[in-house]
């Protein structure tokens, strides 16, 4: 060992490293220790300290660089989505990289997807059901991927993409491939045949549940395997045992004996047959069966028996007096409280004894009161239309026109309401006063009850048309008849072919009808809101000649002269305050009406 004593030690030729303080975020620097005065020996110690400090600084700098590298970008390094390297990138760059990967895999992602539905396999095209990768949501999911510092530096992770699909479109596509495997839920039911309860026991459905199907497709689409979509069995809320219990405890006891209804206006007996018609068991969409008493059906079943304790309310109505609309006042009625009667009657029906209900009779206003009708603004005629018919009033066809005109006369249509001619008249049968007359069926005239009502329908359609009211449903005749305006006309047939218009004004309206021995007229009374309503016709086109058809002669054969077919447009032009406010196009194509001859077809000349 060499001692230097007072001699100067050899010069230290190791490089001096200047140490810079490095701190990680959140670390507080510790105060520096006091520096001792230099001594002879401290120069060597200081050299060693400088060396150690240099190494530390290098390490710290390396760690700092590694930290900066690991935490660079919004998405943790080493993160992939569908094989696209999105780690260490900003959100925007990561989204671009993922979109580029999707473009590279476009053929794969657009290929039809095989889907297993029970025993069947079907395919759907991703574009048809909105099946796609949500790029922005997938990048957000990758950004949320948590990793420790070391993992961010050297680790890797795969984040599944966010897949979206239109559940409704997928469900519609899958149902086409479901075939006969699916079955609808058999709803529980209890009905009456006379006074005998009839039961339908429930059965579960086997079908698709849209959200579960969508989840299965989202999860299985990119696996490269057929997607298994489950068939879901759903049982009705009311099972067979509960149905049998309702029959035993309510349905059978309900019709076992009459129920006495007592009021301060008198009493009456409700027979089992009326109870059976009014006791309803209704199943909701879950298959839950709920009993209730339908008081309207009960009233219909009791008929005039209720006249001893009830008085029907009478609606206010309108009539023309001296050429002006006049309100005929309505009248209040007296009726049993329907809500209370339904509840109280249902409570006693299961009982064998004490089958008695006490009910209150209270005043009931008519649906259309005098005050309401007076305030509807029905004050002037806003449109009128007349059509002519042949044969005088003695023909069955003319009598049908008169009959339907009487049914409709004086009808009030409230603001916003839709008038339906079929609903208003009901079925037009012989019991309603209608007779057999020619009607068009399958392209030829045959006898049918109610023939001629279409003439009134056309007249009413034109009156509503020229009043500027909204056309809801109408259908022109198959053939053109010169007694009607082309295109702007309508036929009708019970029950499927109807005529409807909507009162799209803020005023009420009244339909007034009148007839002579050769005409029928319909007028609409309300408050005039338009300057004019006119029709502009386009030219007739595609004109076709009729053919001649020979029919077997006899009472059922109706000969016709035939008519040409053509297509045409008509435009309803409505003006208000001097300006056209609406221009509506109506179009129709008439078939040529054959020339029907009631005779054997002539043999060709030889």
Explain the overall architecture.
It is a single chain. By secondary structure, this protein is α+β, with helices and mostly antiparallel strands. The chain folds into three domains: 100 residues, no CATH class; 135 residues, Ubiquitin-like (UB roll) (Roll); 219 residues, no CATH class. It is built from 16 helices and 36 strands. Strands 22-30-29-23 form a four-stranded antiparallel β-sheet. The longest helix has 29 residues.
Largest sheet at a glance? 4 strands, antiparallel
* Backbone structural class: alpha+beta
Average predicted local confidence, pLDDT: 86
Whole-number count of domains: 3
The value of Rg in angstroms is 44 Å
Q: How far apart, in Å, are the first and last alpha carbons? A: 152 Å
Please list the strands of the largest sheet in the order they lie side by side.
22-30-29-23
The share of residues in helices is 25-40%
Shape: extended
Portion in strands: 25-35%
Helix count? 16
User: What is the number of E strands?
Assistant: 36
The low-confidence parts are 1-29, 39-44, 58-70, 148-153
Organism: Micromonospora siamensis
Region (Disordered): 1-41
Transmembrane segments: 49-72
Keywords: Membrane, Transmembrane, Transmembrane helix
